[in-house]
Specification:
Strands 1-2-3-4-5-6-8-9 form an 8-stranded parallel barrel, surrounded by 5 helices. The chain is α/β, with parallel strands linked by helices and 344 residues long. The chain has 12 helices and 9 strands. Helix 6 links the parallel strand 3 and strand 4.
Length: 344
C-alpha cells in the first residue's frame, strides 16, 4: 500500500475524543508502511509482538529492547499513549524460562524470581511512557471445568502466579494501570470464569485496575446481548474496561472457505452493521470503557490472514487494503451530536 492518507475523512480518534481512546496494534513493519494512517486515526498504540516475553528476553538476562524502544519513541514523538502488552502469557514465552541449565523444570521460587526480574526490568524501563499494562494474558481455561488454563506458570508456581504478577508490576510502577486480558470474553461460560477470577483478585486487594476484552469477533458472533451482559458483569467490579484487540472477521470460526480474493458486498454491508452496533454499545458504556484498540491498522495487514485457515485473506477492519474507508468506517463515524462525519 502507499503510505498516504485521505484528508477528506475524519480522524477516528477525533470523532471519539469525548468518549475513549482509539488505539491500534502496530509492529515494526506497519509503523513504516501505515505510518500516516497511524498518525491520523489513533491516539493509543499497542505493540503487536515486540513487548512479549520472547522478544524482550530471548535468553536469560539478555534483554532486547530495540524494537520496543522504537515504538515508544514513535509514540512519544507523535503524542500517542502506549498500552503495554503483555507481561505474563502461556504463549510467545522463551523456553529457557521454565528450565534450569540441565533442562529440568525449575521450582516455584526460581520461576517467581525470574518473573519478578522480567516484569520489574520491563515495567521500570517504560515507567514514563507506558501508562497501562496487560499484566496477565489469557489465563482462564476455555472449555474445561477448571477455572485456569493449564500452563507452565500454573503448574510450577500455582494459582497465585496471577496475583504475584500484578504485585510485581505494581511495585515496579505504582502509577501504571494494570489489566487482566482475555479472549472469548463475551461467551457466557467464559465470561463467568473471567469474572470469577478478577473478582477474587479484587477481593484480595490485588492491585488490578481493569479488564481487557480482546473482542476478536466476527460477522455473526457474539450476539449484542452477550456483549452487553459481559460489559455489565465486568463493570460491576468497579474497574476500567478496555477493548484491547478488536477485529471483526469476515468469516465464522468454523468457516473454511478459501476462494475469495476480496470481500463480498454482503460481507461489507454486514460488517458495517456490526461495527455500528458495537460502537453504539461502547458509547453507551463510555463511563466504564476508556479505550478501544483495533488489532491492526487496516486490511493491508492482519494476523487473521492465514489464521485459522492457511492461504486465506481476511478483511476485519474499518479501513481497506489501501487505507481507504470502508462502509464500516462511515457507520462508526456517525456519532450523534458530532459534526465529524464523512465528507464524501
Amino acid at each position: 500500500m502507499t503510505n498516504s492518507v485521505s484528508h477528506s475523512i475524519p480522524s477516528l480518534c477525533d470523532v471519539y475524543k469525548d468518549y475513549f481512546l482509539i488505539g491500534a496494534a502496530v509492529n515494526q513493519q506497519t509503523l513504516q508502511t501505515e505510518q500516516n494512517l497511524i498518525k491520523k486515526h489513533f491516539n493509543s498504540l499497542t505493540a503487536e509482538n515486540e513487548m512479549k516475553f520472547e522478544h524482550l528476553q530471548p535468553a536469560e538476562g539478555q534483554f532486547s529492547f530495540e524494537y520496543a524502544d522504537k515504538l515508544v519513541s514513535f509514540a512519544n514523538d507523535n503524542g500517542k499513549k502506549v498500552r503495554g502488552h503483555t507481561l505474563v502469557w502461556h504463549n510467545q514465552t522463551s523456553d529457557w524460562l521454565f528450565t534450569d541449565s540441565a533442562g529440568k523444570t525449575i521450582d516455584r521460587e526460581t520461576l517467581l524470581a525470574r518473573m519478578e526480574n522480567h516484569i520489574g526490568t520491563v515495567v521500570r524501563r517504560y515507567k514514563e511512557e507506558v501508562y497501562c499494562w496487560d499484566v496477565v494474558n489469557e489465563a482462564v481455561a476455555d472449555h474445561s471445568q477448571a477455572l485456569l488454563r493449564d500452563s507452565n506458570w500454573l503448574s510450577i508456581i500455582g494459582e497465585d502466579f496471577i496475583e504475584k504478577a500484578f504485585h510485581f508490576a505494581h511495585s515496579a510502577n505504582p502509577e501504571a494501570l494494570l489489566f487482566y486480558n482475555d479472549y472469548n470474553e463475551s461467551d457466557p461460560d467464559k465470561s463467568d470464569k473471567i469474572f470469577q477470577l478478577v473478582c477474587s483478585l479484587v477481593e484480595r486487594e490485588v492491585p488490578i485496575h481493569g479488564v481487557g476484552l480482546q473482542a476478536h469477533w466476527n460477522l455473526y458472533k457474539p450476539s449484542y446481548d452477550e456483549i452487553r451482559k459481559a460489559i455489565e458483569k465486568y463493570a460491576s467490579l468497579g474497574l476500567q474496561l478496555h477493548i484491547t484487540e478488536m477485529d471483526v472477521s469476515a468469516f465464522e470460526w468454523n468457516d473454511r472457505r478459501t476462494d475469495l480474493k476480496e470481500p463480498l458486498k454482503e460481507m461489507l454491508y454486514l460488517q458495517a452493521e456490526r461495527y455500528d452496533q458495537f460502537f453504539q454499545i461502547f458509547r453507551e458504556y463510555k463511563d466504564h470503557i476508556t479505550s478501544v484498540t483495533f488489532w491492526g491498522v487496516s486490511d493491508h495487514y492482519t494476523w487473521l490472514n492465514d489464521f485459522p485457515v492457511k492461504g486465506r485473506r481476511n478483511w476485519p477492519f474499518v479501513l481497506d487494503h489501501n487505507g481507504n474507508p470502508k462502509p464500516a468506517f462511515q457507520r462508526v463515524c456517525q456519532v450523534p451530536g458530532t459534526s465529524r462525519i464523512m465528507s464524501n
